[in-house]
Amino acid sequence: MARALRVEGRVAISAALALCIVAAVLLHGAEGKVGPKVTDKVYFDVEIGGKPAGRITMGLFGATVPKTVENFKKLCTHEEGFGYKNSIFHRVIKGFMAQGGDFTNFDGTGGKSIYGEKFADENFKIKHSVKGMLSMANAGKDTNGSQFFLTFAKTSWLDGRHVVFGLVLDGYDVLEKIEQNPTGSRDRPKLEVKIVDAGVLELSEPFNAEFDE
After folding, report:
1. What's phi and psi for 19, nearest 5 deg?
2. 3-state DSSP call for residue 168?
3. Catalytic residues
4. Which of 26, 62, 24, 28 has its CA nearest to residue 42?
5. 17 three-state secondary structure
6. Could you tell me which residues come within 8 angstroms of residue 5 by beta carbon, excluding any fewer than 6 positions away?
7. Can you say how many angstroms the Cα of residue 72 is from the centroid of all Cα atoms in its chain?
């Protein structure tokens, strides 16, 4: 009888443990998916039509794509003597994305990285799973420079083709203003969308991004 009680006790404990695990998974799912680690924080101060529109703050995933993040950070700070300050978002497609980073030609044909004109795709581990993902624009495989885009929605068809390296943390209202700004030929905003300042913000400690699929 004692052996039977011990066996039943182990079964009861195992069942309770299983229920705890299931509850934890369900609770975590309700709170959102734990994403990649944010190691750095940067910002763009934006003007639309010459008027202040606000600040977009972005978290960068340096643990997953360190080379891509280093490129973006240094282009934000102008450490190499060139970068995003006073460049524009030259292409905006409502419901899709806003593209910028061409600080040489301002039309999507230019720009350059801190490593040279182009550098290779680092990896495609992070997906374009939610609004506000920060990803490298390119002209095909291994053609990353300085151009990037911010998504207005989930864009899963870009997975495996563009390197995701960050996520908007604050400033979704600014992103909305950019999206709603009317566009003309070649999806160019009718009111110029300009990055009047860019830089790095202090991050007390790295954290995992959380977002719903």
Report:
1. -65, -40
2. strand
3. 91, 96, 99, 138, 149, 158, 162
4. 62
5. helix
6. none
7. 11
The number of C-alpha atoms within 13 Å of 178 and in the hemisphere containing its C-beta is 33
Residue-wise pLDDT for 32-86, tens only, equals 567 899 999 999 999 999 999 999 999 999 999 999 999 999 999 999 999 999 9
**Which tokens in the block code for residue 147?**
């151009």
DSSP string, 33-98: EEEEEE-EEEEEEEEETTEEEEEEEEEE-TTT-HHHHHHHHHHHHTTTS--STTEEEEEEETTTEE
How crowded is the C-beta side of 42, counted as CA atoms within 13 Å?
Answer: 26
Q: How far is CA 122 from the centre of its chain?
A: 15
| Contacts for 73 with CB less than 8 Å, ≥ 6 apart | 40, 42, 60, 200
Q: What is the pLDDT of residues 110-122, one digit of tens each?
A: 999 999 999 999 9
Q: Torsions phi, psi of 29, nearest 5?
A: -65, -35
**Which H or E run includes 198?**
strand 193-201
Residue 99: HSE in the Cβ half-sphere, 13 Å Cα cutoff: 23
Prediction pTM value: 0.85
